Amino acid sequence: MTQTLCSQDNLPAKEAAMQDFRKLSVWTKSHQLVLLIYEATATVPDRKFPGLTSQVRRAAASIPANIAEGCGHAGSRELSRFLGIAVASAFELTYHLQLAADLGMLSKSDYARLDARTELVTRMLSSLLSKVRHNADLREGKRPARVPTPPSLTKNH
């Protein structure tokens, strides 16, 4: 699957066409992550972990939803804003998965699998966000800021 930006790179930002978010590999990976989260939390009793199952699911679903919403807007700046929200949701999900594992809501193997997938999605999103911002700066005639490589997502556990 080819990684493309949602907006047309060869058009001015105000004339950028909306694209199908389903063509983005990061959307596909994040959607698959949501399905895995629902599967891993299907048998968790709500009374034992009130609200945590729902919060994990909402944080996960927010990632592909914000990618889709960003692709529904014309212009790289709006896409960039929604990709930023998706990145923040991925970090939120990382914490909620850690909490769920520490409380025994998720098995160690489920946690390891979901955490690795979340880290992959976060890296993909960070890369796409950098590209969108860089291309938007070029279209607007700005000198693009040097984009640092996304920091390693180190774990302290």
Task: Characterize the structure shown.
- This protein has four helices and no strands.
- The protein has 157 residues and is mainly α.
- The chain has one domain: de novo design (two linked rop proteins).
- The longest helix is centred in the last third of the chain and has 32 residues, at 108-139.
- Mean pLDDT is 85; it is low at 7-16.
What is the strand and helix layout of this fold?
Elements: H1 25-40, H2 52-71, H3 76-102, H4 108-139
Helix pairs in contact: 1-2, 1-4, 2-3, 3-4
Descriptive terms for the model:
mainly alpha, de novo design (two linked rop proteins), elongated, 61% helix, 157 residues, 4 helices
Percent of sequence in beta strands: under 5%
Integer-rounded radius of gyration: 17 Å
CATH class: Mainly Alpha
Helix segment tally: 4
Helical/strand content category: mainly alpha
Mean pLDDT: 85
Runs in which pLDDT lies below 50 for 5 or more consecutive residues are 7-16
The description of the largest β-sheet is: none
Q: What's the CATH architecture?
A: Up-down Bundle
Number of domains: 1
Distance between the termini: 34 Å
